[in-house]
Amino acid sequence: MKTSKEEIIRLSTKLFIRKGYHGVNLTDIEAEVGITRGGLFYHIDNKEHIYRESLNRYLIMVEEIESKFTSIKTDTVKDFIDQYSSLLEKTMADLSKLIGPSNYSGYFSFYLLAITEQDDLIKKFDKINADQVKLWTNVIQKGIDGGELKNDLEADAVALLFRNSSFGLSYMSSVNKGLQPKQLRKMMATLYDNIKK
Q1: Alpha carbon distance 44, 58 (integer Å)
Q2: Angle (deg, nearest 10), helices 104-117 and 5-19
Q3: Which end of the chain is more exposed for a tag (fewer CB within 10 A), N or C?
Q4: Closest listed residue to residue 55, CA positions, set 129, 132, 128, 107
């Protein structure tokens, strides 16, 4: 069976999550993937190359609006919350397949190490966060303007509450079960109930 670049990235990511970037060498990757050094170099240039690909695939692309939220089509804040929560459930299910049921702290460490050692990632994450806050702000403002939500709300402040609830819960849950989408859905529903008309 021929090994694809995507499979090398996926299996290498599992190693980076378990052992950290500095704890993984090319021999580890060869063993994990079941490929020779020559086969590995057919797809990648070096360990740094595969690490960058790994970060892009499993940290950046999963959070970018263009890849995550384009499927949300709704006219109400309530429906947006439901669809947003469903997308997070899918993301968590996919992540669980990658890292296993009990290595969420490793994934969070993978994230933290990446932003401390890869300066350009901070800019990418800042953009992702700003884009998501803007998305929430637009949805909230539309809800205010359309009469779904109370008209004395500040859309940008409420948007931060929704955005930070998912990020905060992810952080708090990173040491055990990871983000619990059902718990997040309940938190967002409670917040919605307090801002709707």
Answers
A1: 17
A2: 100
A3: N
A4: 107
Q: How many residues does the chain have?
A: 197
Rounded Cα distance, 9 and 4, in Å? 9
What is the helix (H) or strand (E) element at residue 183, kind and residue range? Answer: helix 181-195
What's residue 92's pLDDT? 78
CA 137: distance to chain centroid?
19
Count of domains forming the chain:
2
* Helix/strand/coil (H/E/C) assignment for every residue in 55-82: HHHHHHCCCCHHHHCCCCCCCCHHHHHH
Are both 39 and 73 inside the same structural domain? no
Minimal CA–CA distance to 91: which of 111, 61, 113, 48? Answer: 61
Is a pLDDT exceeding 70 seen at residue 67?
A: no
CATH number of the domain bearing residue 35: 1.10.10.60
Q: Output the pTM of the full model.
A: 0.81
Question: What integer is the mean pLDDT of 164-180?
Answer: 72
The parent domain of residue 19 ranges over: 5-55
User: Which token pair is 29?
Assistant: 């990757």
Q: C-alpha 40: how far from its chain's center?
A: 27
Position 162 pLDDT exceeds 70: yes
Please enumerate in sequence order all residues whose Cβ is within 8 A of that of 156, keeping only pairs 6 or more positions apart, or say none.
133, 137
Closest CA to 170 of 184, 153, 190: 184
pLDDT digits 0-9 by tens, 69-106 = 777 778 899 999 998 888 888 877 787 787 776 667 77
